[in-house]
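Q: Got a minute? One more chain.
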Amino acid sequence: MSDRTEILRRFLEDVWNQGEEAAVDRYLASAYKIEHDPHDPWHGKTLTRDEFKQRLRAARAPFPDQRFTVVHSAAEADRVAAAWAWSATHKGDAPGLPATGRAVTMTGITFYFFDSDDRLTGHWQAVDRLGVMMQLRA
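A: Always. Here it is, folded:
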């Protein structure tokens, strides 16, 4: 087994920070389950890699300069827990919310799950989306 904490850090950098759709194929298993992610349109769904890429595009469109930074992490068996900080600028329209140009921040914690080939199979997440909405509407 490789260092899953490092795999996760590279996944966050390549996929979420850089928006590299091709990297999804390197890091994800064929099915990715979003077990818990309230107020995320994909909450409770199992996605193919192509569906995950659609999710990536939709999430990055309003925040193309977004940046995840892992603050703390811990690995155990088939999972890595990561407490993270996120920052972005609201440069694109989101449903019901035109671009504001405001800088926003958020924190959260995510448990990422891996298969025996060190590919991501899903996550369980708690984030402060309400705080982002408050920043955007301030």
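A: The CA atoms of residues 26 and 100 lie 34 Å apart.
Q: Perfect, thanks.
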